[in-house]
C-alpha cells in the first residue's frame, strides 16, 4: 500500500481535531484527520450513555470563530445533551466541507519520527501509512477507559458495559442495574435511569459534592440577549480563569458575615452549575480550608434536606474536602428517595468479586444484577497518548519518557525530542472549559507553523512541500519542513510553574483523576496549568512576541 504524503496529520475528530483541520487547511496545508470511531465527535461520539450532558452552558459550548453560526444555530436548553453536541459537531464539519478530509474507522497504531526524512511516519491498525510533516494528536483528555481491577470480571452472565462505550441497543427497562462509580458520569447516568429500572444499586467509593445544573428551556428573549452580546461574552470567557462564562468571585468567604455567606451559597445553588458554585460564590473555596469547610457544610445540609432516608443520606454525605472537579446534576440526590434506588458504600463493604449473577461485597452479600455499568472514568490526559507507540528523535518512547519523569510538556503542546508533534490538550495544558482552550491551542499551533514557514522563506500560499534543505556534506537538496520543538529548559520551567501555581490548591490534596490518583499504580503528578485561560493566553502572546521563546529556532531542521 502506497503511503500518503501530508503536510499535517491530525489524530482525533473531536472539538480539537475538527478545528485543527479547518485552521490548517485554511493556511493552505494538505491536512487529513483520522479517527478510530465511525463518526466525528470525539468524546461525544463515544459517550452516549443516558443523561450524558455538558456542564458548560449551551451558548459557549461551541466554536467562537463562526459568528454567523453562533447567531443562527439552534439550542433549546441551557445545557446540551450529548446528542445535541454530536449533531452540532457534524453540522460544523458539513458546513465547512471538512468531511472529505476525514478518514474514520482508522485507528493509529504507531507514530515515529524519521530524522532522515524530517517527518513523522504514522501507521494504522487497518494497514494505512501516512508520512506527515506535522503530527498533531488531538486525542482528548478523557478517552482511554479505566476499568477497575476486580476479581471475576469475566464471569458475569449479564451485561457489562462502560459508559464511554454504551451499546445503542441496551434497554434498561425493568432491569436490575448496578452502577460502579459516582463521579460526573456516574451522577448523570444514575439520575437518568433511576425512573426506568426495576432496581438500581449505586456502588460508591467516594461520596460527591454535587449542585443542581440549573438546566431549563431557553426563553426567546434570553437567546436574543446572548446573540447581541456575543463579542463581550467571548472577550470575558477568553480572559477569565475557567472560561465558563461567569465572573469568578474576588470575595473571600470569611470577609462577609455568616448570614451573607449563606445567602450567597443559596443564590448560587439556585442558579446552578458546579463551576459557578465553586468559583463564583467566593474566591478562596479551593485554597482556604475554612472557606472550603463552609461550602462543604452548605452542600451537606442540602443533601440531608433532600434525601429522606437517613441511612441513604448518611452514605451520600461527603466527608473529604470539596476539592475535586466540581459536579452538577439534574436531580441526583432526589433519586435516592425512590424505593428502587439504594446506595452501597465501598468504604464500608468493598467489592470482593464479580460473580456469575452479580456483585459480591466484603460482607458476603451477593447483589443480584442483570446489568453492571462501569462509570469509572478514564486514564486521563496522558493515558490517551501512552496507549499507542509514539517514538521521537533517536527512537525515544513517549511512554517511557513519561513513565520515568511524569507526563510533562511545554504549554501542553510540545515535548522535547518530539519535533513537529504538536498536541492539543496535552499534559500541563490549562484546567479550564475545553472548547475555548482548544481554540487557543489550535490557533497557537497554526500560527507557529505559519511563522516557521515565513522564517524559512516559504513563498506566500505555498505549503511545506515547497521548502527545501541542502545537505552540507553531499550537497543534495531535499524537501523539509521547519522543525517546531520545545527545549528541555522550557519544559522544565513550565513544569515548575505548573507545580508552583497548584501548590496552594486543595485539589492537590484530593483523591482525583486531575492528578492521576484514580488509576492504581499511576504516578501522582501535576497534570494541568492552574493559572487560568486568560493568563495562559497572555503567556502565549508573550512567547510569540519574544520570538517563540522556549522553542528551538524555528528555522532549524
UniProtKB/TrEMBL annotation:
InterPro entries: FAD-binding_Monooxygenases, FAD/NAD-bd_sf. Gene3D superfamilies: FAD/NAD(P)-binding domain (3.50.50.60). Keywords: FAD, Flavoprotein, Monooxygenase, NADP, Oxidoreductase. The keyword RNA-binding does not apply. Pfam families: Pyr_redox_3 (PF13738). Transmembrane segments: none annotated. GO terms for molecular function: monooxygenase activity. PANTHER family: DUAL-FUNCTIONAL MONOOXYGENASE_METHYLTRANSFERASE PSOF, L-ORNITHINE N(5)-MONOOXYGENASE-RELATED. This is Cyclohexanone monooxygenase. It comes from Ophiobolus disseminans.
Amino acid at each position: 500500500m502506497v503511503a500518503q504524503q501530508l503536510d499535517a496529520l491530525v489524530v482525533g475528530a473531536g472539538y480539537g481535531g475538527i478545528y485543527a483541520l479547518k485552521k490548517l487547511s485554511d493556511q493552505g496545508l494538505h491536512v487529513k484527520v483520522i479517527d478510530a470511531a465511525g463518526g466525528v465527535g470525539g468524546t461525544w461520539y463515544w459517550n452516549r450513555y443516558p443523561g450524558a450532558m455538558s456542564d458548560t452552558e449551551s451558548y459557549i459550548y461551541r466554536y467562537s470563530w463562526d459568528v454567523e453560526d453562533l447567531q443562527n444555530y439552534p439550542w433549546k436548553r441551557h445545557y446540551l445533551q450529548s446528542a445535541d453536541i454530536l449533531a452540532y459537531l457534524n453540522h460544523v464539519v458539513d458546513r465547512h466541507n471538512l468531511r472529505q478530509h476525514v478518514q474514520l474507522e482508522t485507528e493509529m497504531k504507531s507514530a515515529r519520527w524519521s530524522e532522515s526524512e524530517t517527518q513523522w511516519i504514522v501507521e494504522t491498525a487497518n494497514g494505512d501509512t501516512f508520512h506527515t510533516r506535522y503530527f498533531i494528536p488531538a486525542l482528548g483528555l478523557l478517552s482511554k477507559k479505566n476499568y477497575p481491577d476486580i476479581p471475576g470480571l469475566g464471569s458475569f452472565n449479564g451485561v457489562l458495559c462502560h459508559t464511554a462505550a454504551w451499546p445503542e441497543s441496551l434497554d434498561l427497562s425493568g432491569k436490575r442495574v448496578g452502577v460502579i462509580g459516582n463521579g460526573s458520569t456516574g451522577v448523570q447516568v444514575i439520575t437518568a435511569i433511576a425512573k426506568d429500572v426495576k432496581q438500581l444499586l449505586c456502588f460508591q467509593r467516594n461520596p460527591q459534592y454535587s449542585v443542581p445544573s440549573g438546566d431549563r428551556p431557553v426563553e426567546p428573549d434570553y437567546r436574543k440577549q446572548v446573540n447581541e452580546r456575543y463579542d463581550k461574552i467571548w472577550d470575558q470567557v477568553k480572559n477569565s480563569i475557567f472560561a465558563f462564562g461567569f465572573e469568578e468571585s474576588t470575595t473571600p468567604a470569611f470577609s462577609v458575615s455568616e448570614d451573607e455567606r449563606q445567602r450567597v451559597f443559596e443564590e448560587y445553588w439556585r442558579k446552578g452549575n458546579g463551576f459557578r458554585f465553586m468559583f463564583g460564590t467566593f474566591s478562596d473555596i479551593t485554597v482556604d480550608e475554612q472557606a472550603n469547610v463552609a461550602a462543604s457544610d452548605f452542600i451537606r445540609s442540602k443533601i440531608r434536606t433532600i434525601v429522606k432516608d437517613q441511612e441513604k443520606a448518611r452514605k451520600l454525605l461527603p466527608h473529604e474536602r470539596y476539592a475535586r472537579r466540581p459536579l452538577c446534576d439534574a436531580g441526583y440526590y432526589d433519586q435516592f428517595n425512590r424505593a428502587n434506588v439504594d446506595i452501597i458504600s465501598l468504604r464500608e463493604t468493598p467489592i470482593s468479586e464479580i460473580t456469575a449473577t452479580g456483585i459480591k461485597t466484603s460482607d458476603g452479600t451477593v447483589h443480584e444484577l442483570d446489568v453492571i455499568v462501569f462509570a469509572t472514568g478514564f486514564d486521563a490526559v496522558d493515558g490517551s497518548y501512552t496507549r499507542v507507540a509514539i517514538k521521537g528523535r533517536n527512537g525515544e518512547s513517549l511512554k517511557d519518557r513519561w513513565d520515568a519523569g511524569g507526563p510533562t510538556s511545554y504549554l501542553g503542546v510540545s515535548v522535547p525530542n518530539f519535533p513537529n508533534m504538536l498536541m492539543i490538550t496535552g499534559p500541563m495544558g490549562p484546567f479550564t472549559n475545553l472548547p475555548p482552550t482548544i481554540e487557543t491551542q489550535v490557533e497557537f499551533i497554526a500560527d507557529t507553523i505559519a511563522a516557521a514557514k515565513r522564517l524559512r522563506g516559504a513563498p506566500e500560499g505555498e505549503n511545506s512541500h515547497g521548502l527545501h534543505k541542502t545537505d552540507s556534506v553531499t550537497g543534495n537538496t531535499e524537501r523539509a519542513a521547519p522543525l517546531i520543538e520545545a527545549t528541555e529548559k522550557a519544559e522544565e520551567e513550565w513544569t515548575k510553574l505548573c507545580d508552583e501555581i497548584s501548590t496552594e490548591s486543595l485539589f492537590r490534596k484530593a483523591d482525583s483523576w486531575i492528578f492521576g490518583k484514580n488509576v492504581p499504580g499511576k504516578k501522582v503528578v501535576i497534570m494541568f496549568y492552574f493559572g487560568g485561560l486568560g493568563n495562559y493566553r497572555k503567556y502565549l502572546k508573550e512567547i510569540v512576541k519574544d520570538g517563540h521563546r522556549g522553542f528551538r529556532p524555528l528555522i532549524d531542521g
